[in-house]
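[job 4471] stage=fold_predict status=RUNNING
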Amino acid sequence: MLKEGRLHRRSTRIKPALTTENKHMRVEHVLSYIDDAIHNFEPMENVIHIDEKWFNQDTNTRTYMFLEGGLPPQRDRKSKNFIPKTMFLAAVARPRYDFHRKCRWSGKIGIWALTEEYVAQRSSKYRPRDSSDVTPFSFKKTMPIPIFRHSTPTFWPLGWKEAGQFGSSSSPRILPI
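[job 4471] inference complete, writing structure tokens
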């Protein structure tokens, strides 16, 4: 029926179910960037957009393709219900031309995996003692990220105002400094 033209493929996306109060708050947020004196929109050149993204380290089921006689690799986890996640923090700003350095800046600030490196205190069947390993942060509370503070001044164009910071719509579990 698809080849005959009776069926058609269509895709739809889920749209946010906004209440009247949500719509008013969005309009007020946009209007806060408009200068009433000259009716110009704020260019937002001193704003850094920050967002976080979670990634699972593995999935429960994974599909492989093999030739004849091929065997799938052995995959072990202590529990399939507790697969660790890693959070990445990304920061971008508006691209612009820096007249002092005479170059164009892309606006890409960086992306950081929120992990920590540790040294194994005991040996196990997976690794020897004193070997270094990387593990995701375990977030127990809101915490500052010092990476962002040290990377900002090196790329920010000369003569621009102090960098404001703007996050995603969800409340972050980490606070950039």
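[job 4471] summary: The chain has two helices and twelve strands.
[job 4471] exit 0
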